[in-house]
Please model this.
Amino acid sequence: MSAIKTGLGERLVSASTEAAAFKQLPIVSLARLDGSLDERKALAAEIQDAATKIGFMYISDHGVSQDVIEAAFDQAKEFFALPDDKKMRARDAESFRGYAPLKGENVDPANRGDVHEAWDMGDDSQVMKEGAEHGNMWPSAEDLPNFKPTLQKTWDEIMALGKRLFPLFALALGLDEHYFDEKLRRPGHTMRVLYYPPQYGEIDARELGIGAHTDYECFTLLLQHGDIQALQVLNAAGEWVLAPPVPGTFVLNIADMLQRMSNGLFRSTVHRAINRSGVARYSLPFFFGLDYDAEVAVLPSCVTSERPAQYEPIKAGAYVEQRLSETYIKVDPTQEAQVAA
Ligand SMILES: O=C(O)CCC(=O)C(=O)O
Ligand SMILES: [Fe+2]
Model:
């Protein structure tokens, strides 16, 4: 067993890095999301079961249109195929928006940079309010006229889905459905598109598509394009379990802030991605957080005399900022290479 350092302490990993025998993550249908309170509570119980035992699940019947999803991936492919100089113009490393080049990030401090490219967006007006000079870093409309409207539409639809999930998490945590409302006035969030080039042969364990990590916010909704297996989830035995794409679903995983609030009952599970498929792989995660000035404290409903509070209260924004600044490599690796040459 070796240890992985995460924002919430160390996790053990089996010495074998081979994926363990396939174990299916549960599929939870959201069809009852607009049902009666009893139906919503039954759905929340399913979410609670998956959140406490695994921290990962697939969600189906989510209401986001497949056409919108396909269009987003079409645009992602076109964006990542642009020449490097055009992609680099859509970059603002200071505000964590826009393009991040290959190995421009490193989620696992033991590694040498993640083998993916990314493009990140948030809510334009919110990004600027946070002090950035400009909003999202769109590629030029001359190069990609449909990128902005398509990605904006995708953001709108997934944001709407995420907003419908917070009341469900509140129920799953034994709280009033509206508990999170006042912590969601201008919530922290990021939507990303990711491109993972294929990796061949023997892979250096320090150079993975995305290294072992937990997500920072409350929960993540992830779309995986096509039928390419890359995502792996660490189970309680320290084995990597495959999480292949399931058509018509998002992967939903619990992230650090919900683990903290739930006093560790909900699991922010370690995961990573390695693209050995031989072809390009694209994914689209959307991270949902709370207002950055909201306090993230252990919920009284999750504390007992046998299980006292395990986490100190923190401000949501300070926690996420700290984790992001540890992840993003501020020195641009392409410029570094030029200097070294
Ligand atoms: O691309 C994937 O499958 C996983 C991405 C991920 O874990 C992340 O961006 O936090
Ligand atoms: Fe992640």
